[in-house]
Amino acid sequence: MSKTQEVQKEMVEAMKAKDAQRKETLTLLLSALKAKAKDKREDLTEEEENTIILKEIKQAEESLAGAEKAGREDLVEMNRSRKKVLSEFAPKQMDEAEIMAIIKEVLQKLGIEKPTAQDKGTIMKNLMPLVKGKADGGLVNRLVGEVMK
Which InterPro entries match (predicted)? Predict the structure, then answer.
């Protein structure tokens, strides 16, 4: 079952349970998934679905930060709820240990023993395709920076 079908099924369940907040979040996610499929004129791959889901989560996080800064408790709660629902469909994210293992593999493959700032571009170019959609880019960047120290 694709993520799009899974989201649609969960949306129907939310409608039956009269859970308006969950239904609204799932409706927005489903429309984003369907819009991308329509633009592409074919079904989305799992990676494309995951990219859209992660983008929606990031938007919810940004809205949450803005609402917290503005002191809008109603929007804070709404965005926390939205992020929680979206996270149910997100791919499992890699932890720091898993990312570090992949960084070490990339360094070994490239033959770099003591990485320097000049090597960072090459490292990231080889590393990002391996962790795309599975790890936060900011975390990956920070860990590569730690390895270079």
Answer: Asn/Gln_tRNA_amidoTrase-B-like, GatB_Yqey_C_2, YqeY/Aim41, YqeY/Aim41_N
User: 3-state SS of 102-142?
Assistant: HHHHHHHHHCCCCCCHHHHHHHHHHHHHHHCCCCCHHHHHH
pLDDT digits (tens, 9 = 90+) for 25-70: 999 999 999 999 888 888 888 888 888 888 899 899 999 899 899 8
Q: Which domains does the chain have, with CATH numbers?
A: 3-89 (1.10.1510.10), 96-148 (1.10.10.410)
Please give the distance of CA 126 from its chain centroid, rounded to a whole number: 20
Q: Under a CB-based contact definition with an 8 Å cutoff, are residues 3 and 46 in contact?
A: yes
Tens of pLDDT, residue by residue over 84-122, are 999 888 888 888 888 888 988 888 888 888 888 888 888
Measured between alpha carbons, how far is 70 from 89 in angstroms, rounded to an integer?
29
